[in-house]
Amino acid sequence: MLQTNMLQTDSEPPGGLAQNGEGGGIGSLVNFAVAFLRRQYLVIIVSAALAIAGSVVYLRITPPTYTAQAQILLAPPPQFVQQQSLAAPAFDLTQMDTQLQIIKSRAIAVAVINELKLEDDLDVKDSGPSFFSWLSHWIRAWISPQPNDRQVQAANQPREDVIKAFQDRLSAYRVDYSNVIEVSFSANSPKRAAQTANATAKAYMDDQINAKSAANRFATSWLQERLRDLGEQALQAERAVSAYKSQNNIVSSGGKPIDEQQVTELNSRLVTARAQISDALARLNRYEASLGAHSPDSPSIGTLDAAGADALSSPIINNLRQQYLELVRKESEWSARFGRDHFEVISLRTRMRDLRASILDEVRRLAESSRGELDVARRREGEIEKRLAEAISQSRLTDSAEITIRSLENQAKVLRSMYDTFLQRYMGSVQQETFPVTETRVLSPASPPQHKSKPQGKKIVMLGIVGGLGLGIGLGLLREVMDQGFRTSAQIERALELPCLSLVPLMRGIEQATPAHQAEEDLERRLISPNSAIHHAIIGMPSSQFAEAIRSIKLAIDLSPDKTSNQVIGITSALPNEGKTTIAATLAQLIAHSGKKVIIVDCDLRNPSLSASLAPKAAMGIIEIINGSRSIEETIWRDPETNLVFLPTVRREPLIHVTEFLSTEAMRKLFEQLRAKYDYIIVDFPPLAPVVDVRATLPLLDCFIMVVEWGRSKIDVVQHALRSAPNVHKGMIGAVLNKTDIKAMIRYDPYHSDYYSNKRDALYGSSDSGRTRA
Q1: pLDDT tens digits for 268-299?
Q2: Which residues have C-beta within 8 Å of that of residue 93, sequence separation ≥ 6?
Q3: What is the pTM for the complete model shown?
Q4: What is the CA radius of gyration of the chain?
Q5: Is 147 helix (H, G, I), strand (E, B) or coil?
Q6: Is a pLDDT exceeding 80 seen at residue 254?
Q7: Which of 279, 112, 66, 120 has the alpha carbon at shortest distance from 207?
Q8: Burial, 624: exposed, middle or buried (Cβ in 10 Å; 0-12, 13-18, 19+)?
Q9: Which end of the chain has fewer surrounding CB within 10 Å, N or C?
Q10: With contact defined as beta carbons under 8 Å apart, do 502 and 739 qualify?
Q11: CATH assignment of 489-509+530-764, given 3.40.50.300, 2.40.50.430, 3.40.630.30, 1.10.10.60?
């Protein structure tokens, strides 16, 4: 199978366009899915069948389990109960998980087990610890020995395995966001499940009541002692306050000490006096500023207006100001009528000057009055400051006593408040003991279930089907990912950057064929046996798909656009046993059968498998020719039917310097002689990856053909082999996908499925006989 990234592109022909008229997208995805199912359907079906069988077996051997549910409501108690209760609430609605853990706690489990006597109940005992938990417990006991459980087990305490089994079957959870808790218990009996669930709910409610009663009793006892102490402390603090006041003659009026009241009053009077000083000083400054800015010769009284509202409020100034303004009006009219030098106009100006002088004298009088008020205000401020200093000095003498008395009073108040609070709580606790109530109640008791909760047959079977299909698809995808071999021609063209010359189908018995027994006459004449499997594949089945595939290779050699003549053709592969020798032999057999002069040379000096197949009895070959001990005619073998010539290799001892042997001048001359005598020279080379022999023969050849085995040759291995021999890669005209399972190609190349069909082959006499199935 192919890798995932290969599968995504292999369904498209070279160029990236689908021949069915669709591009990528949904069509490619559908084709990929169909091809994947064709390749992996057996794995998917077997996985699904095994999963379904496992589900059925599980349903058969698993005993039924029934689950009963009881619902508990957590609600606050009546309001008067909350006011009387001193103990903390039994639950907090914001901490619902705490209540769930209490229900599943060991104490509740022990109470229910003892009440229902579940320790001897086989229903619970069978659900004890698993093998792994038992093994873990045994290892811990061996590392750190503990006393025997039976020795430390208290009276009426069930065994640990029973408690663990009970807790495993018990579950509790909150119903949505409500205050309802649902308690579930699973058992093999419907009646036992309902009985245990109800008993668990009852045990939880009893535990809440007991916990609250115990808290109330403890609180009552503690409050009684505490009240006694607080009463004595409060009485002593109040007595200390009264005694300290008597000793320091501290008297207060209106809740404040007299000294403090006097200081406050003096502060207020001081603020008022300072405000009066500020007002008097401001008036005086305005008067002086106005007098300083006024000139006696000025004809205007505008500068006197700067004295402010105090000056304008004076009736004398207002009367003089009105007279002045009237004279100004007359002076303006008479000047216009009689002229500025008329004696009446001059008289008016004289009277205006007298009025200005009178207004100025009145402003000076107001300024002197403001100065007197300022002096009085300052003397009053000094007297208040003196009295305030005396009051502050007197107040400092009583500050220490004031601090002490306030501390004693606060302590007495706190103790008395605490005493009253604890007394109220004590009375509530006493009343609560006579009225035990819990915040929980059973909202819905459990009833025996009518149907088993597990195993659920339909769900188990559906899970088995879905899981089996998922497992099968996962295994199929894993097989696809693990399969890194060549499966289609598109892979060869994309990964190796070589055209795929032919898809050679798998033939039975070619690589493993055993040479037939040759007569002594044939050995003397050096004749290739006509009973060989290669001879049968080409001569015996000339219309087979195998023969057509070899013809495709020959045609690609003749029509190669890279070179005008491909006379010397080297056949190689990346790894051994990929069928290069068979391709070389059948190609030479086919060309020779067409009437051409062909010689096939076995240049795999390390492992001459072609010689072992065509001339196993050969005593000399190409090595002897290069050494000069034999000629070509003394070493070649012939096929009497096709006139194919074969130059074998006889390996008598290991050759150490094979590359130097292949690149000698004698080897070059040998190939020049072969070029002059034969039309085609087919050379069977060793694989590229294990040895470097092929690189030494580059000057001797015209082109190479790469043989890749279908499904077995790894893509990365072939790519690495070609990268390590770039000159060989450059001289290649294409690759051959050998041992191809044509029927299986439909599953790997769905776009070209019609190309691999046998229906049209029969019209032209082609036959698929001899091809094996995948």
Answers
A1: 887 888 887 887 777 777 777 767 665 555 55
A2: 74, 179
A3: 0.51
A4: 61
A5: coil
A6: no
A7: 112
A8: middle
A9: C
A10: no
A11: 3.40.50.300
